[in-house]
Amino acid sequence: MKQFLALLGLLVGVMFLAYWSSKPGNLEAFFARTGLPTANTPTLTQKTLTVGSSQFKVEVAQTEQARKTGLSGRESLPEDSGMLFVLEKKDEQPAFWMKGMKFPIDIIWINDNVVSEITSNVPTIPDNTPDPQIPKYAPRAKVDYVLEIPAGVANKRGIKVGDTITLPQL
């Protein structure tokens, strides 16, 4: 009788797990909490990028999911690191926001392999800020790429508008 009840309990548990995991978002949320990769986890390649005379190890966000996620949820970023966003089309005016960001950044807007604009010291926002109230940051002109680095690094390294960018082989 004990074996039958144990088997029945196991069967009920498996059925519950199958039902729970079939609901949209449950598995993604579970894997996000554990840090384990999922099918929706963006794949990022690491490359070296040069801005003026400064080199950065960058993660390249080439997919829509990787661009949506960006640096959200990370605690920090080393000073010599960043994330390069490869836009779907050349000459776009993308808007970025700081939802889920835990540290401030500098945003370097790139057009034709040249720094066209820098948005410095973009602050984080409180987690409970409603989406419509989250500020959006966009370049004044169209760009091909966007580089995010830790706040203050652009100024500290003397990066300025007009500096040439040596992009990695993508």
Automatic annotation (TrEMBL):
| Alphabetized Pfam families for the sequence | DUF192
Listed InterPro entries: DUF192, Saro_0823-like_sf
What is the protein name for this chain? DUF192 domain-containing protein
Name the species this protein comes from.
Candidatus Blackburnbacteria bacterium RIFCSPHIGHO2_02_FULL_44_20
* Phylogenetic lineage: Bacteria, Candidatus Blackburniibacteriota
